[in-house]
Amino acid sequence: MNKKSILLVKPAQLHEGKPLKFSRGLTPTRALPYLAALTPSDYDVTLVDEGLEEIDFDCGAGLVGITTILSQVPRALEISDKFRAAGAKVVLGGVGASSVPDRVAGRCDSLVVGEAEGKWESVLADYQAGRLKPVYGGGTFCSVEGLPAARFDLLDRRKYIRPSEVTSSGMPRVTIETSRGCPHDCAFCSVSRYFGRTMRFRPIDDVIAEMRLYPGAHFFIVDDNVSARPSRSKELFRRMKPLGNTWIGQFSETAARDPELLDLARESGCINAFIGVESVDPEALRGAGKHANLKTDLPAVMKAFRRAGIDVNVSLIVGFDTDTRQSIQNLADYMIAQRVHLMSLFILTPLPGTRLFEQIKGEGRILHDDLSRYDGTHAVFRPKNMSAEELEETYWKTFERFYGPWSVARRFLNAPAWLRRPLPVVYTYKGNAFFRRQIRHRVHPLCGGVANGTDAAKASEGA
Description:
Layout: E1 2-10, E2 14-15, E3 18-19, H1 31-37, E4 44-49, E5 61-67, H2 73-85, E6 89-93, H3 94-99, H4 101-104, E7 110-112, H5 119-129, E8 135-136, E9 174-176, E10 179-180, H6 191-195, E11 200-201, H7 204-211, E12 218-221, H8 230-240, E13 246-251, H9 259-267, E14 270-278, H10 282-287, H11 298-307, E15 311-318, H12 325-337, E16 342-347, H13 355-362, H14 388-402, H15 405-411, H16 423-440, H17 455-461
Parallel strand pairs: 1-4, 1-5, 5-6, 6-7, 7-8, 9-12, 12-13, 13-14, 14-15, 15-16
Antiparallel strand pairs: 2-3, 10-11
């Protein structure tokens, strides 16, 4: 084993016991390129996105780092077992492994709990000294000043979709981070637990310097809320405007109350806003601790964003204790009537480490601990007003109906209003075709890759 050779792996999600594969990726992971940027230059670093390529278990790497979201943990453990059997040292990390330390104990050489900064450097020093610790964790949240630019140059760009309708660059969508944390404490969300409830903002100079590395690229700003501090957001957008990039990002509905912020966002290249509405039922929102959304006026929010020339992707969750099969169908009807151009639908999922998980577990409603199904498309707990099977069936049928031809025609009747600035609606219209194809294969559109024509798609059709 070569002690200066490091393999960094993004594992696939298991589907019926096999890794879920895609023909092309949707958005390159930021986790692996960023971890590579934290690694000293005297190491030979290789990145593998298993959903798009095969892992070479005989590559001879002395150290293997595997980053995970929760649904990837089972496959990550299989990968770890194989590399350890071959003599490599394996380090697991990411929000998934961090959430279930008892599940990964004994299946890796080290577990990095929480953020990598400060810990990865210690891992490498201890690895070279032959004294890896079982766990690297604790301490305060790291500073986000002076963070290195992610090493996207180490990824094979040809394996990812290039959003040609919004960029002249030959690159796929590039993920950019400008802040971490979330001040809210929603019962179903792990963001505030993993990144903290105190917002940490990267210096704008650092963000702009990283963006300048990708002229003409289309960015996905991965912040949980890019408008969290309006004064800072406005300054960021002003600085982004001369770059000429297009981008999408996650916004709070409160941004709709600040026309100047939305105008600056559009002038800086924003074409689409992902908005976590989650539910239009006040009781569901209260039960989930999503108090910030109780006063959301969706028509007013959409009007404000569209006035600025930004289209929206409304994120919704079904499976709350107030939900019924009929209410879920009614929710989709409401979104169609509001002419929502993109809707991302998820099944409520009690993620380990969240208050929702503790509640559902305490009520004896957790159905199983197959983490590969904790992905927002499976019912892993017993709902109150229907069976788990009925929830899944209603979820997929509702999702599919929303993206059916009749719905698309009705929702885009307002497309002529975008003639002055057509790019955002062209983006969402093309997104409808992609969403419809993914849903037909029972693969979530935002899962990370293109399912059509792959073994994964064929497997999903028979699921």
